[in-house]
Structure formats: C-alpha cells, structure tokens
C-alpha cells in the first residue's frame, strides 16, 4: 500500500473523463456527464493525486439546502480509486476535509465495493423452502475481505451506515441482483452457460420467446417516445409514478454524446405493434438493465424475456462482467412484494450481491440534523 502523500483537488470534466478512460471498473454514476442527468444537483469533479500523478477521481453531486449556503455532497457508487493501493482512511479523510472547506454540511457516499454474494439457485431454493427469513441466514458463496477494510475505515472516520432494512431507501440499493457473465476465473461464459442459471420455467419461456415472431431493434433518441408509451402503460399497470419522456431523451442523448454506445434502447414488436422496450447502460466492463416496459397485449410471446436475452448477449459481446438488474432486499419471504421481485430476478439467473451500502458523515452537525428534519417533513407533505 502506497505511503506517498495523497492530495485532492478539483479537476475539469475533460480531465475527469481522461482519467476514467484508463479504468474499466467505473460506474456510469461516477462519469462527469451523469451530473447532466440530475438537474437538481450540481456536479463537481475531484481528483486524487500522489507524487504528481492522478490516482483517483470522484463525481460529487452537490444539492443546496434551503436558506443556508451549504450543500449535501453525494457520491453515488464511488469514488473511483484503488483501495488496495491507497488506504481507505486517507481517501475518506482528504475527501471529507475538502468538502467541508468547500461548503458541504454532510457527505453521503456508497463505495463501489461488493461484500457478499449469494448464488441465484441457492436464493431460489431458500425461498422455495420457506424456512429462512432473510439472506443473513443463508450460506453465501463468496465474501470479499476488501469490503471489511472499507467498512472499518468508514466507521473509524465517523460515518454512519444508512440501513435500508427490508425496504428501499433513497439513494442506491445495498443489495443488487446481477447476472454473472464470467466464471470464477474471469473467463467469459457462453449464453448456454448463462441460461443454465435461470429457473427451468424462465429458461423455457426465454427459448420460446426466441422462436416467437418478434422484431427486435436498437432505437435512437427519436424512438424514446415509443419506449415511453410502453413505460406509461407499465406504470399504470404496476401503480407507480413514472419519469417524464424528457428524462429519457436527455439520458440517451447525453450519455451517448459522452460515450457512444453507453446507453442502448431496445424495442421488441410484433406485426407493427410495440410489445416491450428496455434501456441498458454500459460503463467500462459493467452493464446495467435500468428500465423495462411492456404492453398489456400478446403477453404469451414473452417479449420482455427476448429483450433480456438480447441484452445479455450484447453485454457478453462487449466483455462485461455482469448485467446488473437493480436493487432487491434481503428478504427470503417469497409471498411479499419484495420477495416476489427477488424470486423473479433470481429466476432470470441473477445472483444477489450485498455491497458495503451507503454511509453518511455530518460535516456540520446542526445543519445536517436540520436538513434531515426538513426532508422528513417534505416527504409527509
């Protein structure tokens, strides 16, 4: 581990992007262009330097608090630095000191570090048996010691863990579902090997969808209206409030302008009618299935499963390590809504991974307390 002095300074978006180009393990939420997708936040690019060489970077999203001229600083899925080479305590200390001196009253972050992995088949079996309550009672297949070091450093620096419990909290989920695209040695899997991780019914329906009379195309920004029509149908069916069309057009246009091919829109249609659509993001050797939508018609054609197969195939061709399918909770109760979501995702071959989660450090305790009270009040009104 390096003992050289570690310093932190603001960098330009261009310098930020140039550093990330040297790394493969970068979340899309740590790219400078991500700030353009979050209009309520101001993006700040920071770089760590050792011996005159840049060794790390962070996109910090700054959200102003009401009345006072201070901001909440948030690092989603970051920072981007090798904690094996640079001690987490030093990285966190320089970050907190810089942000405190530059108007932040609190620092919230979620390091991109995995802690524990449960295989899809093991989670499905446990949910089917009905004898376990949550993942803490299920034997895991992998535990990463690096997560222990990062967690210890966060605790030593005074950070508090933001416990999402059995629900989804604001920010990024602590538990995520991912389809692995490489084996334990890092060798790419075949599509047959990937589908072997599906449940029997999901595998059968996926194969049927590949034989169905579906046309699958990759759309452009101008086709986001087609996606949004299906997305609105899905929001009505599942009773959630969706995002406006402008969000998706901005997402597709902005990310692809910065990194061509980083945001892909897929549309599956039958006889001229759109049946399903999906949005996949890619950054370095990682891939995320971030939005899906489907029609109420022709459900027997399993268009969403055809799209998932296409996304897995494309991610595999691009050399990605996994296709992330978003958050889950640690429950193993198949009967409740969160358990049902976990069972569905593991049926499609998703392992469940616990990350180190999100943590918060008050840089000004009075303002941090006041901001939390204000946000709690706003959620109730």
3D structure, described in words:
The chain is an alpha+beta fold and 381 residues long. It contains 11 helices and 17 strands. The protein has a 9-stranded mixed β-sheet, with helices on both faces. Strands 1, 2, 3, 4, 5, 6, 9 and 17 form an 8-stranded mixed β-sheet that branches. β14, α9 and β15 (322-328) form a beta-alpha-beta unit. The protein is globular, with a radius of gyration of 21 Å. The N and C termini lie far apart (50 Å). The mean pLDDT is 93.
Which strand order spans the largest sheet, edge to edge or round the barrel?
Answer: 8-7-16-10-15-14-13-12-11
Structural class: alpha+beta
Question: How many beta-strand runs?
Answer: 17
Poorly predicted sequence stretches spanning 5 or more consecutive residues: none
Number of helical regions = 11
Q: How far from one another are the termini?
A: 50 Å
Look at the structure and give the mean pLDDT. 93
Shape: globular
Cα Rg: 21 Å
- How much strand? 25-35%
- Percentage of residues assigned to helices: 25-40%
Sheet with the most strands, sense and barrel status? 9 strands, mixed
Order of helices and strands: EHEEEEHEEHEHEEHHEHHEEEHEHEEH
């Amino acid at each position: 581990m390096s003992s050289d002095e570690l310093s932190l300074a603001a960098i330009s978006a261009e310098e930020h992007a140039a550093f990330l180009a040297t790394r493969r393990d970068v979340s899309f939420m740590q790219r400078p262009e991500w700030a353009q997708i979050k209009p309520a936040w101001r993006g700040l690019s920071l770089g760590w330097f050792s011996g005159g060489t840049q060794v790390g970077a962070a996109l910090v999203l700054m959200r102003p608090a009401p009345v006072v001229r201070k901001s909440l600083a948030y690092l989603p899925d970051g920072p981007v630095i090798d904690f094996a080479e640079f001690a987490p305590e030093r990285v966190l200390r320089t970050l907190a000191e810089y942000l405190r001196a530059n108007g932040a009253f609190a620092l919230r972050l979620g390091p991109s570090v995995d802690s524990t992995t449960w295989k899809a088949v093991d989670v499905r079996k446990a949910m089917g048996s009905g004898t376990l309550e949550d993942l803490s009672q299920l034997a895991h297949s992998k535990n990463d010691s690096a997560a222990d070091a990062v967690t210890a450093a966060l605790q030593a620096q005074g950070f508090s863990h933001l416990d999402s419990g059995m629900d989804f909290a604001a920010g990024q989920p602590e538990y995520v579902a991912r389809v692995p695209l490489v084996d334990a040695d890092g060798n790419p899997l075949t599509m047959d090997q990937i589908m072997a991780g599906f449940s029997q019914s999901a595998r059968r329906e996926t194969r049927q969808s590949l034989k169905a009379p579906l046309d699958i195309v990759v759309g452009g920004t101008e086709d986001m209206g087609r996606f949004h029509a299906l997305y609105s149908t899905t929001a009505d069916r599942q009773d959630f409030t969706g995002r406006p069309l402008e969000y998706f057009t901005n997402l597709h246009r902005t990310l692809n302008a910065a990194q061509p091919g980083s945001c892909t829109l897929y549309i599956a249609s039958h006889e001229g009618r759109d049946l399903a659509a999906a949005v996949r993001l890619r950054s370095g050797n990682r891939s995320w299935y971030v939005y899906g939508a489907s029609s109420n018609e022709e459900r027997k054609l399993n268009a969403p499963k055809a799209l998932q197969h296409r996304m897995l195939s494309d991610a595999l061709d691009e050399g990605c390590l996994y296709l992330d399918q978003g958050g889950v909770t640690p429950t193993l109760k198949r009967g409740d809504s969160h358990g049902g979501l976990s069972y569905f995702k593991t049926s499609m071959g998703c392992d469940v991974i616990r990350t180190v989660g999100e943590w918060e450090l008050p840089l000004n305790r009075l303002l941090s307390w006041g901001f939390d009270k204000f946000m709690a009040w706003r959620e109730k009104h």
